[in-house]
Amino acid sequence: MSQLEVRRAREEDREAVLAFCSQTGEWGEYIAYVWNEWLHDERGALFVATLDEQPVGIANLRMLNATEAWLEGMRVDPAHRQHGIASALFDAQITEALRRNALTARLLTESINEAAIRLIERSHMRRVNAFAPFHAARLTVNTKRRYGMVTPTLATSSDSDEIIDYLNVSNIFPAAGGLYNAGFTAYSITASLIEQKITVQQIYLLRRWDRLDGLAMVEPRERRGEKSLSIGYIDGTTESISLLAYALRKMLPDFGLETIHANIPDLMMIRDAFTGPEYEWDGLVFYTYERGLV
User: Fold this and answer.
1) What is the pLDDT of residue 30?
2) Could you tell me the maximum CA-CA distance found in the chain, to the nearest angstrom?
C-alpha cells in the first residue's frame, strides 16, 4: 500500500508539483507564479502531499494578520484523486493555523467546484460570502453623461466613525460576510482595516443630500504583469453603486491604470448596478468559507 505523507514543501519539489498542477486547469497554472513567494513566506506554510515520496498534492496557508488564516492553492494530481489527499492537506493547514494561534480560517472556491465544496462543508466550514467578479477597461469617452454629475471623495480619518455606523445598518455588509476581497483573498472589515485604508487613501465616499450614500474600498493590484484597480467592497443603493462604479472607472487614467476589477457581492441589485456603467461579468461566482478555531 502506498504511504501518504504531508510535509513542508522543499525547493526540489517544484518541478513535480508544477507538472501535475498544469493538469488541473487555469487555476492550477498560477501555482508557477506564486511558488517562490509561498515557499519563502514567513507568514505562511506551503505543504506538499507525497505518495511513496512522490509529490501528488499541494496546499498553502497564509496568515493575513494575527488572527486570520487564509487557506489557498490546494491542488491534487488528477491521477491520484479519491485517496484522501485533499483531506490530509486540509488537516495540515488547520493544524498550522492553530499552531499560529489563528482564531479564524477562511478559503475560497468556485461555486461549480462540487468536489471541493463537499470536502469544505464536511470540514465544518460555513459559507459566509458569494461574490461575482466584474471588470472593465478605462473609458475613452463619457458614455453615460448622467454619471458625471456626482464625484466621490476620499475618506479621511474624521469619516471613520460615520463609515462604521453606515456599515452597521447596511443590508449589503452582512450579505458580503463583512469581508473585503483583495483579489482572491478575503479580509474582515474591521475598524482597524478601515483606518488602514483611509491612511493609504483607498476608501471613496459618495455623499448626496448631505449624507453618506455609498462607499467603495479599493486598491491597485498587479496579477501576472497586469496592473489594475481592484474594488474589494462596495455599498449603497443601486444608483449610488452605479455612480461609484462609473466614477472609479473614469478615474483609471489618474491612477495610470488601464483596467478595473470588482469582486462584488453576488446580489442582483449590485450586478444590475455594475451593468449600467458597462462592466462585464463572465458568469463566475466564488464562495468564501469560514471556520472558527476557538
Assistant:
1) 85
2) 71
Residue 27 confidence (pLDDT) above 70: no
**Helix or strand holding residue 266 (H, E):** none
Exposure letters 119-138 (e unless 16+ CB within 10 A, then b): bbeebebeebbbbbbbbbeb
Nearest to 278 by CA among 187, 185, 183, 142: 142
Closest CA to 163 of 197, 205, 196: 205
Query: How far lies 117's CA from each of 66, 91, 172, 234, 288, in Å?
Result: 27, 15, 24, 26, 10
Backbone angles phi, psi at 42, to 5 degrees: -70, -15
Find where cell 455588509 sits. Answer: 173
3-state secondary structure 169-222: CCCHHHHCCCEEEECCEEEECCHHHHHHHHHCCCEEEEEECCEEEEEEEEEEEE
Residue 24 pLDDT: 76
Backbone angles phi, psi at 154, to 5 degrees: -70, 135
d(CA 70, CA 245): 28
Burial class (CB in 10 A: 0-12, 13-18, 19+), 5: exposed
Cβ–Cβ under 8 Å, residues 157 and 198: yes
Average pLDDT over residues 149-177: 95
